[in-house]
Design a protein that fits this description.
Length: 132
């Protein structure tokens, strides 16, 4: 009896955590740059394009996500990334497997609008998925 209650409580906590990071809420995290190619969305882009990647966890928890990443509705959205008073808009095209949940990647052209590429990783940017 006690263990059943405990399990029920545990399930509730896990479910609550999964819902806590709503996709349209502004987040803070690390920004890095990556070299786009054929990404998880099935698009092929290069570094001259303003494109973005989000973490595997954020990608897979996006509403409407299925086993086929190409069909993920997140692939129809842009990411607004803000740092030091400047915002860059980049199309979401890929996911990053080894990233923290709130990390975002930008192509070098997009990254360069916000910081020097030689910085490599910017610790605390603000980002949000644009709803349009
Ligand atoms: C976020 O999405 C939820 C439903 O998915 C909606 O109720 C809410 O208004 C949205 N918030 C913003 C800031 O767009
Ligand atoms: C990325 O590539 C796809 C085609 O693979 C294209 O439709 C889309 O416009 C490209 N995105 C950007 C920002 O250039
Ligand atoms: C922030 O932007 C200002 C110009 O608006 C620039 O002088 C400064 O170097 C930038 N700081 C960083 C950390 O990128
Ligand atoms: C990131 O910056 C925001 C303000 O833009 C601040 O509220 C937040 O505490 C910072 N987070 C970290 C981890 O430094
Ligand atoms: C993202 O940026 C675009 C272009 O500046 C703007 O129209 C849109 O409102 C922004 N979305 C969010 C959620 O901040």
């Amino acid at each position: 009896m006690v263990s059943k209650l405990f399990l029920a409580a545990l399930t509730y906590v896990v479910a609550a955590c999964a819902q806590a990071s709503s996709w349209n809420v502004t987040q803070h995290g690390e920004m890095f740059h990556f070299v786009p190619g054929l990404g998880a969305c099935g698009y092929t882009n290069d570094s001259t394009r303003s494109v973005a990647s989000v973490s595997l966890n954020f990608f897979n928890s996006f509403p409407g996500s299925t086993d086929n990443p190409n069909d993920n509705p997140i692939c129809t959205h842009h990411l607004n990334v803000t740092y030091n008073g400047t915002t860059v808009v980049a199309q979401i095209v890929d996911l990053c497997i080894q990233c923290a949940d709130n990390s975002v990647g930008l192509s070098s052209s997009a990254f360069a609008h916000l910081a020097d590429l030689r910085v490599g990783i910017v610790k605390n940017v603000t980002w949000v998925v644009d709803s349009t």
